[in-house]
Amino acid sequence: MAAILEATARALLRRVAIEQTEARLPSLSTMVLRDGEPVWFGARGAVEDGAAPTPATQYRIGSITKTLIAVLVMRLRDEGALELNDPLSRHLPGTPVGEVTLAQLLSHTAGLTAEPPGPWWERVPGADIGSLTAALDAGTARHRPGRRLHYSNVGFALLGEVVARHRATGWAEAAREEILQPLGMGDTTTRPREPHARGYAVHPWADVLLPEPEHDAGAMAPAGQLWSTCDDLARWVRFLSLGDPDVLAPSTLAEMREPIGVDDTDAWSVGFGLGIQLLRHRGRRLAGHGGSMPGFLAAVWGDPADGSGVLCLANTTSGLRPPLLTDLLDIIDAHEPVIPRPWTPSPADTEMLELTGPWYWGPAAFLLRLLPGRDFVLGPVNGQGRASRFAAKDDGTWLGLDGYYAGETLRVVRRPDGTAGYLDLNTFVFTRLPYDPGAPIPGGVDDKGWR
Question: Which helix (H) or strand (E) holds 399?
Answer without folding.
Answer: strand 398-400
